[in-house]
What we know:
Blueprint: H1 12-17, H2 19-26, E1 34-38, E2 49-51, E3 56-63, E4 66-74, H3 78-81, H4 88-105, H5 116-135, E5 152-159, H6 162-168, H7 171-186, E6 193-197, E7 202-208, H8 212-227, E8 231-232, E9 239-240, E10 244-251, H9 264-283, E11 297-299, H10 303-306, E12 310-314, E13 318-321, E14 334-338, E15 348-357, E16 362-369, E17 381-384, H11 393-398, H12 423-427, H13 439-442, H14 447-456, E18 460-461, H15 463-473, E19 480-489, H16 498-523, E20 530-533, E21 538-544, H17 548-564, E22 567-576, H18 586-597, E23 604-607, H19 610-622, H20 626-639, H21 644-656, H22 660-673, H23 677-693, H24 697-710, H25 715-727, H26 731-746, H27 754-765, H28 769-782, H29 787-800, H30 826-833, E24 840-843, H31 846-858, E25 863-866, E26 871-875, H32 881-893, E27 903-909, H33 913-928, H34 944-953, E28 959-961, E29 965-967, E30 974-976, E31 979-982, E32 1000-1006, H35 1009-1017, E33 1024-1028, H36 1032-1041, E34 1046-1049, E35 1070-1071, H37 1077-1082, H38 1107-1117
Parallel strand pairs: 10-11, 18-20, 22-23, 24-25, 26-27, 26-33, 27-32, 31-32, 33-34
Antiparallel strand pairs: 1-4, 2-3, 3-4, 5-7, 5-10, 6-7, 8-9, 12-13, 13-16, 14-15, 14-17, 15-16, 19-21, 19-22, 20-21, 25-35, 28-31, 29-30
Helix pairs in contact: 2-4, 5-9, 6-7, 7-8, 16-17, 18-19, 19-20, 19-21, 20-21, 21-22, 21-23, 22-23, 23-24, 24-25, 25-26, 25-27, 26-27, 27-28, 27-29, 28-29, 32-33
Amino acid sequence: MKQIPQDLNLARGDLMDMEGLLCSGLAAFFTFNGHALYFPTQNPPDAPQFLPRERRLLLPLVWREELLGVLMLHGVRAREVRPLLPALPSVVALCLENLARSRAARTDAVTGLATEDALYARMEDEAARVRAHLDDPAQPDGRPAPLHRLCMGLVVLRLRNGEEMARQIGFAFSEKFLRHVAEACRAGLPSDVLAARVGRYEYALLLSASGRGACHKLARAVLGRMEAVSLPGPLTRQPVRPLLCAGHALYPQDMQGPELVLPMFEQARQLMARARLAADVAAQGQSGAGLGGESRIMPFARILQDGGVVLENLPLGRLRISLGRQTKAREGLRFAVWSGGARDAACYKGEIVLLHVRELDAVAEILHLEDAAVIPEPGDSLALLDGLPVLSPSDMENALEGISDVPGLGSEEKTPGSEPRTEQAAMAPAQPAAPGKNASADAPSRAATEREEQGAQGDLHGHGDFLKRFAREREQCARFALVIARLAPSGARAGSEPERGMRKALELWRALLAPVRATAAEDAGRAEPFGGRYGSNSLIFFHPGRAAEDLLPVYAQLCEGLKKHGLATAAGLAGYPFLQFRKAEMQDCALKALEYALLLPEPKAGLCNSLALNISADRRYSLGDVFGAVEEYKLALLADEGNAMAWNSLGVCMAALGRQHEARRHFLEALKHSPDEARAAQICYNLGTVCQNLGERRAAARYYRQCVKIAPDHLFAHIRLGQLCEQGGRRGEARRFYERAAAIEDARPGTPSPARRHLARVAARQKRGGEARELLHEALLRNPNDAAAMLLLAKIYLDGNEDPAMAELLAAVFPPEWVTVIEGGREQNAALLEQRFDYIFFTGSVDVGKLVMEKASRHLTPVTLELGGKSPVIVDETANIPLTARRLAFGKLLNAGQTCVAPDYCLVDRKVRDELVNELIQQFKKMLGEDPLANRNFVRIINHKHYNRLQGLLERQDILYGGWHRDDPESDSGWIAPTLVADTLEGLSKPMGEEIFGPILPIIPYDDLDQALRFINRREKPLALYLFTRSKKTKAKVLNTCSFGGGCINDTIIHLATHHMAFGGVGNSGMGSYHGRQSFETFSHNRAIVDKATWIDLPMRYMPYKKINDLLIRMFIH
């Protein structure tokens, strides 16, 4: 019998799962018409037995010398089986090996769970079963099937720190960790639940015939078991624990109607996408704040309810949010906006309404702000306010059947509890509920108010109702106008109620539109204009059968009339038909017209015309959408071929895309249509730039001179003319143009000075280095970030050999064969250190420094190591405490303590300890304010790893001041406030166990200076030491007793500020030194060379040696 591979496994449960596959394999050798699988507990057959009278065959199923079960085959033919009896054990072994291989193909090699393909196959079968029950829900006895049979649940469990674990610790440990987490996931699962690995760091659980409550309970139980997994890290031996989240979806309740006709495999993938989307939301921390893992579990049905977040702020009071059609969002839905962070501390900001819903996101407009100074920001969470069915945590916990499991969950039908309230209830002030706390029932909604106002104000609809009616009636009109009016209270009425302004605008609109309505009724039959809300401070109006140009005077009067009532109003009008725009796009056209109207003088009423399209295209270009801007500029030219601004802007876009010939053609058209001299000057300059890029210098010079003739103070035209002259070798003429440009700059104080940079270049070429340096210094004073001026200044210093330190500025521009930057991790570093170098300079940790030195020793390569360490501060009783606190605070706050020579801990004489602590606190407040985390000048921690490490150092410590921290929503790090920690000479606090490298300062009192010196000398030699004292005796004693790299007396850090002093460590803090001239010495080798003359050669140095040789040598030596 052949050897079976060791990686193939088979168990009794596998026999039951693959019983059909086993029988089909045996049917290839002989025929039978029935079978039974059983597991005897005593006297099992040890070999195949044929029972001819009953026509049965007993086959013991032996796998690796272990009996798994017995297969009884019925209807076996004797003439087929008898010849095979000796070979039947081998036949059975072959069939079992096929089963084991099939099982291995459906089992993940790392975790032992089912593979993704096996899960999808099972999901397709379950979906088909559910569909069969939906088509015919009756049981065989005629009774209806229970509701929980009409669904299938899928739970996705995600290991959020899996990628970080693999990156930082390694893939071997990561796979081991995944295996332990999978074992915890599989333990205690019901027999009908299939566990599978889907993706690299995700697991999935498939629940057959289970509702949303069962999914939620199972997810909570499995998360609890998985969270208990803890493995020690291979290097630090610190425990590594999983960070988990979960999402679940239900079939068919969470599917869209049209999706149910898709093939089963496609429906399975759609369900998986929904469960993963729920897990994404759970990972963002957007689920409710519950206990026992509640905050990490999100049902798909609750994403719309309280799983949305703000993604981006858009112009005109709009937001981009994370809810799209995939989460069943639709236009007109309202949401409460809450500040990000902990839910208990969340702050209500206002309401928004969805305007345009896309597949993965949506555009919403702000309806109301609780505080006008606090606007929604990216990361803020959303809670649904409209009366849709609400899925609460209690529903998921207490019910396995019921409304949450009935097909149709998430449909648009209202529940009995969502009926409109009475007028008194609707208008009563109420504080919105936080997301995840049944926001649909408790949060303030203006939907009821709007519906009642529609009854009182028959022409004004709610936002969603207006869009529905507009979509219906626009299809019946060959011509119509759409108007958006924006109302902004001004002056003393700025704080008045917005509803009052809306009512006043509606009254005036009715009065002004009375004659227009009569005309519209004659032209369009019964169709009449109607209006609706468009946000909290805007109205939108639809005029069937009217041209926007005819309505412009009406809305101009509306703007003037509302201004008398303290309402600064702007109106944007769009008329259909207009160019290539469809009817559905008229809303965007009206917004473009409104954006144009806001730039107009009073009355601010504007049409969607060529200028409006031009302004919209300008905005798209400023946002980086060059191709979108090109299309809109072309539309502007279709509306008005004489729009010189559009021609010019189109040329700018073409030049930005590198299409110089097209750009020149557009600029020439702009010049032909431009009556304005200032605009013509800019077009001439653009033409000159394009010609210069094309290499046509004469044409470029002609256009630049034409620009200067129209606008004599055009700065860059003078500079361009100077460049052309300089390229032609006419440096004197170039200098005159640059001097004129510099004179123009002098008339504009506070602006950068590129002209001085060009003048300096000409002066340098004319061998006037002093003048060039003076001009470049002036340019850098006006703009310290002028990199080109800085590079030119460094080159001048280097060429003049006057200050070698300035040559360091050229490191950024050296060719790659001289200076090369290599990015990567440990593998790249290891490969780099295997190379042979002349010298290695390393800055980093002690452990890596030892590795660098070990690698360098193989090639006997010299090294300089800057390794850091715990740099102490000593403050004795004679120190000037206010000055000491100020300079110590400066050293600790510089880069938030993230420098290699930052003060790490402070040894202070016990007599002045309290005074120093109080002064430090005052200095922290003076430098950063009462809330240092809100100070824009205070830097954050470099990355997530060190941010968490520093927070861990502060756990259970005696904190004298600070200790606060705040996460950065734009990165995975955050800020930690300056913190003082109390400690003793035993040094038992967490911060004293390692180099802090952050804004934390332990304060350690001492009674005698010798105690402090012994405390320092017991530890590794530091990179820096700082002493604050007025005593010469103390200075001498500390300097003679302690060994350290460098330091300051009565100051911190500043010993790095001068290049005249070398800098480096000693012992564990490093070896070698650099800075200034010492850097050149470090990276140089002193080579001794003797150059001997050939005209004389003394023979005494050569053998044979005689007495005369000895006498002569003594004469020459002495």
